[in-house]
Amino acid sequence: MRLYTYWRSTTSLRIRAALNLKGIAYEPVPVDLLKGAQNTDAFGEINPTHGVPVLELDDGTRLMQSHAIAEYLDTISPEPRLFPADPLERARVQAAALTIAMEIHPVNNLRILGYLKGRLGHSQDEAVTWMQHWMAEGFAAFQRMIAPDTPFCFGDAPTYADLCLVGQMVNARRWGLDLSPFARLAAIDAHAQTLPEIAAAMPENQPDAT
């Protein structure tokens, strides 16, 4: 397998961690988002939405969108599970993961910030305030959705919700979000990073990190 990725991409982090946890070997293919490599026609043939991650299977099939990729990996390699087998527990994990993947991350990603600062003329400080606002709102909801007293979001092992959280916590720290209201999330994030598979997926440990 090949994974089109970028060291600071938190959606790519989710899939790097998922692959590591499942023991699935992959070749990272760095795509430099800051230099606009994702906007080329050539990369548009790989992913029409011009984003990462993209997982390329051994037969050349390409899968896009981190949530869809994670579900595919859970299907072909069920252990350890990222999504519980029990329908009710699965729905809870999905809802929490999607709170980050759909409610927080999309309004904080590179192209949205580029539009805010470029087309709409907002300053860097205004863009950071925007990011902090949506992260705080989303984290407050996420914190109420997860279990109150388990090592990970929903138990003793990480689920896809934890991988989404770890990625978004990277952004929270990068952009100076006040994490004092989110002690539960900070504790889960710190515990998750004690797992070698998740630690290896962190941005600073990628071959293209700068």
From TrEMBL:
Record key words, sorted: Isomerase, Transferase
Pfam families for the chain: GST_N_2
EC number: 2.5.1.18, 5.2.1.2
Single GO BP term: glutathione metabolic process
Sequence ranges assigned to domain GST C-terminal in this UniProt record: 86-210
Annotated GST N-terminal domain residues: 1-81
Protein name: Maleylacetoacetate isomerase
Organism: Candidatus Rhodobacter oscarellae
Taxonomy of the source species: Bacteria, Pseudomonadati, Pseudomonadota, Alphaproteobacteria, Rhodobacterales
